[in-house]
Amino acid sequence: MMLLHNMTSLEKDILKELMNIILAKAADSFAKISKEEVLINVPELKEAESKTALEELLIQNNVEVIIQSEVKGDIYAHTLLLFSDEHMSKVESIFFKRIQPSKKMRESLLLEWSNILTGTMVTHLANFLKVNIYGSVPMQPIYRDSLKGNELLLDLDVTRPVLFTVNALFMPSESQISLPMILIFDIPNMEKILHLIREINKDDFRLLKL
Hints:
Blueprint: H1 9-24, H2 27-34, E1 37-47, H3 53-60, E2 63-73, E3 77-84, H4 85-95, H5 103-129, E4 133-135, E5 142-143, E6 162-171, E7 175-184, H6 187-201
Antiparallel strand pairs: 1-6, 2-3, 2-4, 2-5, 3-7, 6-7
Helix pairs in contact: 1-5
């Protein structure tokens, strides 16, 4: 089943705009810890189409570290944040301007990124869709050189992950980070979301007016 293919163009626009609205709210949290003005948007939303999609995404994005969280409650899902060496270098240059961070400091920062993005997404998605969902504490970082097939604790169908890119622009340093973030739903949970979007927008497309 192709999840996004079962949506109309308008519904895809609504889902993308919803993610834009939600994750833009994470900018304030990043601004507080970076001491810079931050702009966040979601320029791309797509569904991977092969049975090896997750493995291919890790290779294509030169992923070195994965931060994984769970979304629980009325809707169940996983989020994966994918960091390459380039991503980590940019993050460090923004948040550790004059010091060389230790491994523990670096890991704490990556976990905080996941906590902010996943937490913001869950809080506002719950408000918009009127559902009871919450995010778990991010799991410890998983490094590519130690990654094994069973290390990603995914109990959902991972053959159709939904991938969106999170663009974060930090000013005045003008550092831009385009970070792949994967949302993994199984079919019943994605159908719940589609049903909620259709119910909310069946009369006046209210989600587009948020």
